[in-house]
Amino acid sequence: MSTTLDATHGTQLRSWVASANVAGCDFPIQNLPFGRFRTAGSREALRIGVAIGDQILDLQAAGLVAHNDMNALMAATPAERQALRQQLSEGLREGNSSQQAAWTQALVPQSRVEMAVPCQIGDYTDFYTSVHHATTVGKQFRPDNPLLPNYKWVPIGYHGRASSIGISGQRIKRPQGQTKAPDAAVPTLGPCKRLDYELELGWFIGQGNAQGVPIAIGQAEQHLFGVALFNDWSARDIQGWEYQPLGPFLSKNFASTLSPWVVTMEALAPFRAAFERDAADPQPLPYLDSADNRSQGAFDITLEVLLQTARMREAGEAPVRLSATNSRRAAYWTPAQLVTHHTVNGCNLQPGDLMGSGTLSGPEVTEAGSLLELAGGGKQPITLPNGEQRSFLEDGDTLILKGWCEREGAVRIGLGEVSGTIVA
Fold this sequence. Notes:
Elements: E1 34-39, E2 47-52, E3 55-58, H1 70-74, H2 78-92, H3 97-103, E4 107-109, E5 113-116, E6 124-127, H4 131-141, E7 157-159, E8 165-167, E9 170-173, E10 176-179, E11 188-191, E12 195-196, E13 199-205, E14 224-231, E15 234-235, H5 236-242, E16 256-258, E17 263-264, E18 272-273, H6 291-296, E19 298-299, E20 302-308, H7 310-314, E21 320-326, H8 327-330, H9 335-343, E22 354-356, H10 371-374, E23 382-383, E24 389-390, E25 398-405, E26 413-423
Parallel strand pairs: 6-22, 8-16, 9-26
Antiparallel strand pairs: 1-2, 1-5, 2-3, 3-4, 6-7, 10-11, 12-15, 13-14, 13-22, 14-16, 14-17, 18-19, 20-21, 20-25, 23-24, 25-26
């Protein structure tokens, strides 16, 4: 597992990029996340960059890569990725005057660029890793039996639609689909009335595996590149009518939104946590279990959901927090377990493939990762500070997810944010 702490995580490290040293900065020198960008409003080819403070280091312009193929970079070996991280850390370190002189010309302000989806996503699988979310939602449909029998044994997932995954700042068109009221004789076609968000993490695959060759739990993290914030928008009324017998379809494939920066597994090393399963619950089958996964397979990532309505925006009011949780409290399965289960049947993963965590909800109602939970399936609307109420998202609403890692003895790093606005 990518557990090693080294000089790149040093708490005393500072960068010659001054903005990276500001307290609370998402992108200090200890982070160094990857993304793809180009000059705002241009038709330039996308370039690979690393976020440092409020700047982006153009890797090709800095002479660090010979290409701008993010998927090829993701396919590098863990040792090659670690070597690049070391080179970046040393070159951006305060006091490295020779590299500062060379790399200053390769810096681009983040305010002057537009970001793209971090890589070419060939395939996307969405999991269902929060037992709290699964239980709360299950109670709305099956009060006496909220969790299906397989939930605590199998990392449940479904194959999603990669083509409709977009980048932060998306304008989400309210989808249409079939719905059926409980007292109606026939379904109708129309716009979704129960549009929701889902607070998720998106785990990116680095090196793939050959078809027919499963990835063992002990090697799973060698195949993970990093993580981003992920909002899997959901049309709950369409979902309720279509999901039996084959699961989500039109209720999910109209749009999903990623944050632009992928925080690497190496950057996450100081924020690992024990994977703990309640002793009363079934323990993972042997192929999903290892000493390393139990001792440090989970991640301590704080997650926050904010909402700004059209009325708030017009009044100049800031977004308000709807909920907050931590991935360690929310996830019933680790990323390594997701990789291992995904490939146990011989499925071949490829660089840039995306695995959604599923809605991450903690045990308390204030930690819910969707309006479906916060508003009790629409029966208990939440009241915002300005008096507006929400059961589900309305046109003009902007939904924002934020994430960061913070722990004593380590420098805080951030995942940035992902936002999307609903339009008619």
